[in-house]
Every structure is written in structure tokens, then in C-alpha cells.
Design brief:
With 493 residues, the chain is α+β, with helices and mostly antiparallel strands. It contains 15 helices and 16 strands. Helix 3 packs across helix 5, helix 6 packs across helix 9 and helix 10 crosses helix 11.
Length: 493
Amino acid sequence: MAPAIEIHSEKLNLKIIEYIQELGSCWRCAIRFTRERKPEAYQQKNLDLKQEPEEKVQKTSPCVICLGLVQDQFIKECITDEISQRVIESDYDSPTFSCMVSLPVAIMLREQAVWFLVTEKFPELLSTNFKIDHVTSLKDVWKFVFSEALELKLKKKLEYSSSSFQIQVNVLYQDEISECGALVDMCPEKFKHRYKQTRVYREGIFTRNAAHSVLSGISSLNFKKHYTLKVPNVGTHYGVVQCSHTSIHIAGRYQKFSRKLCQTPWLIEGEKHMDTSIQELICKHLEPFFKTQSVKFSSSGREDVDVRTLGLGRPFAIELLDPHRTLFTQVEITQVQIIINKSTDAIQIRDLQLVTKEQLSVLKEGEEEKTKIYRALCVTLDGSTLTAEDLDRINGTTELVLMQKTPLRVLHRRPLAVRPRTVHQINATLLDDYPGHFIMRLKTQAGTYIKEFVHGDFNRTVPNLCILLGRPVDIVALDVDAVELDWPPALFN
């Protein structure tokens, strides 16, 4: 267990604050080095530790640590007005927010420099297990200073832990590259390959992780050889304010009545092969409702373009990425469902509802244990007449294990393998008015290729219906009558 961190005495704290201010620091950064964690200590109205500290700093110079980010004379402009306006324009309805602040890497260098100077000036600090990681985070202090104003302007509550709605504030510093060049001098091996792979390091050569890697083990002597703390010529400025919301998930079941409709957009070399899809028929109504421009569609299996899905339908889920609208009722979702169903004859959906990310595992877990019920219209290919006695050869069949090699029709997108699949039940009936035709109802393990079970796929599926009936057979039409997965919960009878 690590030794307990000792809290400095008030007398020592005042000496530390005074010394750091003499280096050119603002009063808030000076307090940070005393491990002060209370938000109220950093408010303008709290003067217990300040003792008119701004007299120690040149009025025109940014703080040597934070570069003016939390320095009083550099935050008199309505920074929160600018940030909040950008957030308001992004039009998110979340009642809470989390604020993330991206700081210049140069601030890490400056904090390290001050830490070395402070621990050399007050060596007794090292005996208290004082480390640079114990300095109160500048990001936290920024939130202490600005959070109240942001809450009032945004009319949202700040959550320090985590909110689904996140505001990313990017702080920039124009001398970042020149100052961070010292990191290269300290550890050339760390950065030499980065200059050659700029596409890999999209966040720039000097990332916080890279800087931390260099600084975490560096000695005071080596650090000072390459970096000297100086009063900055310019302060920080704000860059782009980015807003995002974690995904929300909607689930339901769909019935498919068309034999000319794919489940998801069918793209060949970037071009759509069919006019629309189940995903598009649903999502073109969900996207404007939730104010999102990107979705991810998933389901419990999928049917071929020419296969209908009937009964209670197939369970599906849609991930709505970065939704701006997140406050809604089940009644409103049901209204969207009604609009979708009225907009098309190709599909119908039911039980549309909000689900959690954790609930989505139901779609994929135990995939091979799920069962599906099919109805297939089949025909003999040799012109022979079928009798009820012929069908008795397959009727009543249970737990028939097939060995299915990847079908030729999907071999371009599925790996070659032999998969065992179980047909749990078979029941076939003749169509008296259509000689050679019969309806076969079967219950199978999920993932069974029904078409290949019927025609054999050049005996890539064995046994198959051709072998069982002793004559060539093909499939005319196929329906999915049931996907036996009780999810999501039914909402209406």
C-alpha cells in the first residue's frame, strides 16, 4: 500500500504560494501546488489564501503555468458566453452535461518545471511523498471557475463524473510546437519515428501521452538541460467547441412482406444495387425524430432479399449515434412506429421501444441455440408425381443433423467452412392442385441454410431433401414464420 499523503501545514502552504507567484504564476495555479481540492478555494470571492497575489504578477503577462487560462485578468471577457452560444446552437436537449478540456501539452512542461523548482526550494515536501501527480488538475480548476456560469447559461446541470452529453473545449497555444521541441531534446528516440508517420499521429507529434512518457521518469538535471521556465509572450485561446451525445438504442420487430427488399443498403463498389432497404424504410423516420444523421442497424439474423418474414417478425435494434434529441416518451416512439407503418406496404414494425446497450447482447448471445420456423414452397424437378407416402419419408423427422459447407452463393463474403446445423422438425403437405409441388414446414437451428437443404447445393449440404426424397427438388419460395426469440418485450397484445 502506498504511503499516505501528508497535508502541508498552512504556514508551508503560504510560503509555497508566495514562491510560485514570484515565479510568475497566477494565484489559482499557486494554490494548485498545495493540493487544494475544494472548488470554493478557487472562486474569485474566496480570499483566504490569495492575500492580494495579483500584485506579484505583471498585469500584462500570462501565468507561467496555465498561460492565462484561469488567470483573472485573462478571463474577464465573456468566455462562457462564447462557449455556451456554440453549445446552444448545437441544439442538444440533454438536461445534464460533462465538460472535457483539452489543454496544450506545453502546460505539462511548465507544471513539471515548477514542480522541480518548488521541491528544490522546499525539499521537505519530498519527505511527505509529494509528487507532481498530487498537484490539483488544471482541468478541474477550469471547471471550478467556469462551471457555475456555464450551468446558468446552458440551463443544464454539470456532472463531474459523467454525463451522456459531453462538451469538448479545446484550448490552444500558438507557441506549442516551439516549446514542446524540448521534449524531443529530452528523448529523441521517442519522437524520431513520429515525424515520419504524421498520418498515424493525427493528434499531432506532441500528445499528452507522449509527453507523460518522457516526463514521468526524467530527472531534474536532465530536464533543466533542455527546458527553462519563462514568462510566455502570449496566452492561450479557445479553439473549436465540440459537442456529442452517447448513442441511444431503439429495438423492435419487423415483418417483411416484399420479396424484392434487402435488409440493409445493398452496395456494390459504393453504388446502391436496390432502391431501398428495411433499414432505410425505418431509419428515414427515426433519424429526424432523434435528430441524428448516423445509425447502425443490427438484427437477430437476416433473410434473403426474396424471403418474407411473417408471424411476429424479426427482432432488430438500431443504434442512433450522437442524437440531439434524447428526451421523449414511449407514446412518442409509438407515434413514430405508426408513421413508419403507414409509409410503406413492404414492411411493418411492432414493439418499438428504447433499450439499453447491455440489452443488445440478447441479439447475439446464444445465436446457435435459437430456433426459427420456416415455410417453403418446393417442387420436384424431374416431373415426377409426389404422393403422401413419398412425403412420409420426411414427415416426423426430428433432430436431423446437417453438415453444411459454405453455400456457393455466399462464398464471396463468408469464409469456407463446414458447419453442423440441426433440423428439429419437418412436416410436409402436398398441393393437390399443383402436381409435384408441396409445402414444407420446418423448425431449425438458427443459421441453417434452408435453400441449400432443399436443393443440396451440389451436395455441399448433406443430407438434403433431394437425398431424403430420392429425386431432384428445388425451392420456389421461402417464408420465415417465426424467430423464436422473446425480445424485445411485447408492448401490445
